[in-house]
Design goal:
Layout lengths: L1 E7 L4 H11 L5 E8 L5 H8 L4 E3 L8 H15 L3 E4 L8 H6 L4 E5 L11 H8 L3 E8 L9 E8 L6 H24 L3 E4 L4 E4 L2 E3 L2 E2 L2 H6 L1
Parallel strand pairs: 1-2, 1-4, 2-3, 4-5, 7-11
Antiparallel strand pairs: 5-6, 6-7, 8-9, 9-10
Helix pairs in contact: 1-6
């Protein structure tokens, strides 16, 4: 079974969505470790309730980013996962760390990338008056939120939306999107051809998969 390590910094809602998908046999994987950089992260308790091993590596106790990244990389490597999954992990990773897990580390970002990379994506989308927002799963590269796009889901922006309202609505769809895309990767239906710099779906070039309403209803 495919082994996953999940990195979190907060409540771990996307981690919980992945764990629930595993429980429902919708994600053919085993979460073998959860890593948090914050000792107070609520997601730690969620992992422990599920009997999933947890490693807490407080970034504030490390001399610098490289020391922290090496400590995290050591813990990850010890359990030999196929995929490293960032789920609300609020640390910018060093090039050394990213290169160590290149091609097998994914992140979910709350926007339709390449629009609104970085922080405060909902606030910026509302300020721009866009009619459509969403979330994107992508491979992690040294470019912040700039790795190859794997999959996304669109979320309409409604009249009167606040940042909190939009965040919650997007987050609900993130919980459906992430396990769906991960399962396509695990089944090797979705693959990144590094040599050709091309994403493939069932062996055919594609620009990424998109979660439609029918799939959301059946997730």
């Amino acid at each position: 079974m495919t082994r996953l390590v999940v990195l979190i910094s907060g409540r771990g809602s996307n981690f919980c969505a992945l764990a629930e998908a595993v429980d429902r046999h919708e994600l053919n994987a085993q979460i073998v470790l959860v890593v948090s950089n914050r000792p107070e992260a609520a997601g730690i308790d969620e992992a422990r309730k599920r009997g999933i091993p947890v490693a807490v590596i407080d970034h504030t106790a490390c001399a610098d980013r490289l020391e922290f990244d090496r400590a995290v990389a050591k813990r990850i490597s010890a359990v030999n996962p196929e995929w490293v999954v960032l789920a609300g992990f609020m640390r910018i990773l060093s090039d050394e760390f990213i290169e160590k897990f290149a091609g097998r580390m994914v992140n979910i970002h709350p926007s339709l990338l390449p629009a609104y990379p970085g922080l405060h994506s909902h606030r910026r989308a509302l300020a721009d008056g866009v009619s459509e927002h969403g979330a994107t799963v992508h491979l992690v590269t040294t470019q912040l939120d700039g790795g190859p796009l794997l999959g996304r889901v669109r979320v309409p922006v409604c009249v009167g939306d606040t940042e909190t309202m939009l965040n919650e609505r997007v987050l609900q769809q993130e919980h459906r999107l992430y396990p769906w895309v991960l399962n396509l990767l695990i089944e090797q239906r979705l693959q990144w051809d590094q040599h050709a710099r091309q994403l493939l779906l069932d062996g055919e070039p594609c620009d990424g998969v998109e979660l439609q309403q029918t799939e959301m209803n059946s997730a």
